[in-house]
Structure formats: C-alpha cells, structure tokens
Specification:
alpha/beta; five-stranded mixed β-sheet; Rossmann fold; GMP Synthetase, Chain A, domain 3; five-stranded parallel β-sheet
C-alpha cells in the first residue's frame, strides 16, 4: 500500500505528503549549522512546508505565479520550493553568485514579484533588482544577520511568514492540501534558466511528469532507496543539483545533506559519507589535485607506497570494480593496496560509502576517470541537459568506458543527423522555452525530436560518444575537422590547466589561450623555489610557460594519433594574465567558456597569435566582487608549441 501511494503520487507536493505518511520519522534534510548537524524528518518537512505555503498565500502569492529562490543549499530554501509548488506556483532557482544586473533580465522575463533568499548579501542584490524591476514587492529572507536595521517595504523574515501561515492554518486547516489536490502532472514544476552561452538565458519550462519520470527511471536503474545520503553543494539553479537533491529525493525518499558553507564541503562530506554522489569534472579534478599536492609533500616511504599501489590499481582496479576476471596474486596486491592506500584515500575524499557517483556537464579526462574507478569508486558518466531532465544516457554497471556516456536510459530514443547532431525523444523533454516560441521551434521539431546542438555518434556497443557542440565544430583552412571543445577538454585534463580556449575555424592552424590552475601551479613553483607575487606574475614566468608547453605537447601527441583531428594540433599558445570569470562574462555561471565573446574581447591577442608576434600588450577591464570595475594590464609572451607528424596517416 505504501509503495502504491508513492508510485501514484504525480506531483512533488503529493510525493511530499506521501513520504510524510509512509516514513514520517525518516530524515528528509540535514544542515550543518555552527558545527552541529540539524535534521528535519519527512513529517516535519511537510508541516513546515504547509506553514510556509499558507504564509505565502496570505501575502498574496497565487497559482501560476513565479517566485525566485536565491542562495546556497539550505533546507529552508528547499522548503520554499515545495511551498510554492504546493500553491500551484512555479519556483525559479537562480545562481547565488550572479550579480544583480544579470538577474534583472530573468525577473523581467518571468515577471517575478516574490523572492525567498538566504541572507543579507542576497537581500542587497534583490533591492538592486527592485530598483530596475519595481514589481518585485515581497522579499523573504532566511538568515537575519546584518538585516536588523533594514526597513524597506515588503522585506520579511522567514519566521514571520511561518507564523503568519500558522495563523492561517488555524482558521483554514485544509487550505494547503486543497491547493495540492488541484495540481496536475502536466503542470509546470519549475522554471530553469539556461547559462546563456551564446546569448540571453532562456527559461526552460519543465513539468512534474517529465522530472518525476526521469528521476524514477534513473533511480530504478541504480537501485536507489530511501536509505541513500546525498550532499547538496552545487548551485540549486543548476538542474543537475536540482534533480539529485530535490526531484530524486522526493521520488525515493532519501536524505539530502546541506554543508555548512562552500568552504566546509570537503569536511562535511567526510562526516556524511554520501552513498550517491554527483559532481562536474572540475570538482573531481580539484579533489585529485589536492591528493597529489599532499602526496608531493609526504615522506619518501609514503610516496613510494602510494605510487606502487596506484600502479596496481591502474592495472586491475577497474576490472575488479566491473567484476571482470583478475588473477589471485593481483587480487591480493589490490586487497593490500585497499588496506594501505585506496581505503584511506576514499575516506579522505569522503567517498567511503559511495555506491554510485556521476560526472556530467563536460568531458572528463580518461586518466582522471580511471583514477577514481581504480581505487574502487563506482564513477560513471551521464549525458543530459536542462531541456531533457538530465537523464538521457548513463553508463550501466559493468559497461563503463572512459570515452563514452553510455547507452540511452529506458524510455529515451536517439538519432544522429547527417551533420552529426544528436536528436532525442524522451519523456523528460522540456514543455517549451518560456515566452519564446521561436527558440522552442528551433529545438523541438514537428515529430517530437529535440535537437541537442551536440555532435556525436553511437559506437558498436550502442554507447553514445560526444565530440563537441555541433555549431562549434568547424573546419581549418585545409578543410579538416576542427572541434574546439574537444581540444579544450584535452588541455584541461592537465592538473596545471584550469581553462582553455581554442581558435582555428577558417585558419590554417590552431592556437589557444590558457588559464593556469593557480593552486596547482603555485604549489609546483614553491617546490622549485620559484618566487611570485600573484596570479599575473606567476602566469608570466618563463618556467611556467615551459611547464604548460609540456602539457600542450602531450595533447598534440594525442591529436597526432587521431586521423580526424591530427591537423588540429596547437601551434601557438599564450597564458592569459587573468582567470576567466563569469562576472566578466567570459564564462557562464556553470563555467562554460563563452568562446565567441572571448574571441571578440581579446581580439588583439588572437591577432597576435596568428601574426607571428612573440609578445603582446593587453589591457582588460574587470569587475570586482563589490561591483566596482578596474583594469589589469600585462605584456603576454606568445610561445610556439611542438607539433607532431600525424601518426594515423603515417601508418
């Protein structure tokens, strides 16, 4: 009966009520506050959501309206999403690090009049937004610190709204349940704004039916239960985090854990020990960089033991994880390695209990991917997007390959166009782009196929391999293939390279901008007694250029062995004097490179790369965290890179 009640629930508010009945005492959410983990059960969560929904109703929030949610992962912000949906409204989660000027467009486009935010920083931002969008009349804040003397109209503490809701429910006890009963699976569950890689963000309208269907399909595939623990640490506005910490939590009933702050994520993860984990490649890269820095600082015995057993892990770890045949002696060595190295390493990473870990958003380097699998972490790649409710392709257990994203998830159909573009049919497809029928028609054709804009192909095993964005795939002057994102990702596989931007379409050769990883390169420099006075100074060092030249050379050697991309080897590169930054419009909020914008902004550097110059002066305007602007200038060295004869053709 309990399982029937949960499977029959077809909206998130109904799922919430079902869990409150089926598992009232089971932890729904946890948050670490002042060093102590606080817990809310499903029954407590349902009660708070009813109070908050009734309070918002009393403030005039109505069915069909949009409400912005801005802040770090906090239980009370998740409660707000549930409360809005309970009233038939539509939550619009937004990036907590977005500046007010970026948010104004979304507030105007979605006609947002209500917002629930985390703290003083977000309140200040909302007041800036209100100056440009006066229809933002109600701002509810969770953390009252620093807000005692704020007296702006419509500014309310979260607890006051809860008290108001309690009064309303005393007079109308069934108000919220009555509103929940009006909901339908085809109603809009949430409005997610895309990162705006090529222009203004688009509002992706997703229904309950789509999000619940894909969440259930993936949960069934992985055997997820209410006993899972997940860590909610990525932006709520990113649908990846939203699916894992919200939609799938409501489908399965598992526990969502919110860290105390972004700075404590690693420690909090070790305490929680999630069983189900999701991160983009840059997080896995950062964790591995920390491991390697610590090993470099370790004594000779520890370093020797680590490298020996990592050699064993690279040889047989993936096979053992996939339950493939492995000799008894290698199994014994791996068991010893697990006691001495892999187990402590998983514990240090907070991954001792992980049953399945996903990575998505960008390509992950084969070496990085294999590292995690070799030490016993069941890391898999998935493919999806905001428009597809995330789950399109997932690597099944025992069929994990480093260069594919797996076969389609149950219910998904794939088709590859003549130009290589991937088309999708899925129950998880978007309903539409909000107030943008032209954009909707461009991606959803008359036959129901979603045009992803990604280029790829299906291999002999039925797995999908992604090459690049279809619009980004170009040709060099000689007519051969140029796939910039593929090249950039290969560069970023190096722990010393944080970002890269490749140029070459219509040109006779490929060039690149490089952003160094300040922490990794800084540690490398300190070990060699190389002094530096900050990012600009470090990035311009001749020794650092030598280091990056070695990284570029390795990428060129790999490209030389690829028949299609052998001519796309990088001939010249420079190291940028500043880190690419979303605040400077160079990256999206999900840290995707805005290649065309960067090419225009740094046109003088692109021209220098192709004109044979050895150096180029550049002056760049930047935005600081407090909203001020300033300028950074430097004379950048330009370096030639070693290229190789195409091996595939030579063979």
């Amino acid at each position: 009966m309990d399982a029937d009640a949960l499977s029959a629930a077809d909206t998130f508010p109904r799922l919430l009520l079902a869990h409150a009945r089926v598992r009232p005492g089971h932890p729904a959410l946890r948050e670490k506050d002042l060093g102590i983990w606080q817990t809310w059960t499903w029954a407590q969560t349902a009660e708070i959501v009813k109070q908050l929904a009734a309070g918002l109703h009393a403030l005039g929030f109505k069915r069909g309206q949009h409400l912005a949610i801005v802040g770090e992962n906090r239980p009370r912000l998740y409660f707000a999403m549930m409360a809005v949906q309970s009233l038939g409204g539509v939550p619009v989660p937004l990036y907590q690090d977005a500046i007010a000027a970026e948010l104004v467009y979304v507030f105007e486009n979605a006609e947002i009049e209500f917002a629930v935010v985390e703290d003083q920083e977000q309140v200040d931002k909302m007041l800036e937004v209100r100056a440009a969008w006066p229809r933002l009349r109600t701002i509810v804040y969770d953390d009252p610190r620093g807000l005692r003397h704020y007296e702006q109209p419509g500014l309310l503490p979260y607890d006051q709204v809860l008290r108001r809701g309690t009064e309303v429910l005393a007079a109308q006890p069934t108000l919220v349940e009555d509103e929940i009963a009006k909901g339908r699976p085809e109603d809009t569950a949430a409005l997610f704004y895309t990162s705006g890689t090529t222009g203004k963000p688009k509002g992706v309208v997703q229904t309950y039916r789509a999000l619940i269907d894909r969440s259930r399909a993936a949960a069934e595939m992985e055997g997820l239960t209410a006993d899972e623990d997940v860590l909610a640490y990525l932006p709520m506005a990113w649908i990846g985090q939203n699916i894992f910490s919200y939609a799938q939590a409501l489908v399965t009933g598992y526990t969502v854990n919110c860290p105390e702050s972004p700075a404590t994520v690693t420690n909090d993860m070790r305490e929680i020990g999630p069983t189900y984990y999701f991160a983009p490649p840059r997080v896995f890269e950062g964790l591995l960089t920390q491991v390697m820095i610590r090993m470099d600082d370790a004594g000779w015995i520890k370093r020797t033991m680590f490298h020996y057993f990592m050699g064993v892990a690279r040889r047989v770890g993936g096979k053992i994880l996939d339950r493939a045949p492995v000799g008894w002696f290698d199994r014994l060595l791996y068991w010893i390695g697990d006691l001495l190295v892999y187990g402590p390493l998983r514990n240090m990473l907070g991954m001792s209990r992980v049953k399945v870990a996903y990575t998505a958003g960008e390509a992950i380097g084969p070496d990085l991917f294999s590292f995690y699998r070799s030490i016993g972490i069941n890391l898999k790649q998935l493919y999806g997007s905001t428009e597809t409710s995330v789950f399109v392709c997932v690597q099944p257990n025992g069929q994990v390959k480093p260069d594919t994203v797996g076969p389609p998830v149950a219910g998904v159909e794939l088709k590859i166009r003549d130009n290589g573009e991937i088309l999708i049919k899925s129950p998880g497809l978007l309903k539409e782009y909000y107030k943008n029928p032209q954009a909707t028609a461009e991606v959803l054709d008359a036959d129901g196929w979603y045009h992803t804009g990604d280029a790829g192909y299906i291999d002999a095993d039925g797995h999908l391999r992604i090459i690049d964005r279809a619009n980004d795939v170009g040709k060099l002057a000689d007519g051969t293939l140029f796939a910039p994102k593929y090249i950039e990702n290969k560069l970023k596989f190096s722990p010393y390279i944080k970002e890269a931007v490749a140029f070459g379409h219509g040109r006779r050769e490929v060039t690149a901008f490089i952003n160094i990883d300040y922490e990794a390169v800084g540690n490398w420099a300190e070990k060699r007694g190389l002094p530096y006075a900050g990012y600009v100074d470090l990035a311009g060092k001749r020794e650092v250029y030598d280091l990056i030249a070695e990284c570029v050379e390795k990428v060129n050697a790999d490209l030389a062995a690829d028949e299609k991309l052998a001519n796309s080897q990088i001939h010249r590169f420079l190291i940028l004097h500043k880190e690419l930054d979303p605040d400077d419009d160079e990256l999206t909020r999900t840290r995707k490179v805005r290649r065309r914008f960067i090419g225009d902004k740094y046109a003088v550097l692109v021209d220098a790369l192709y004109s044979g110059k050895k150096e180029q002066y550049v002056e760049t305007q930047v935005k600081f965290e407090d909203g001020r602007t300033g300028k950074i200038s430097a004379t950048l060295a330009i370096r030639d890179a070693k290229v190789f004869r195409p091996l595939a053709r030579a063979a």
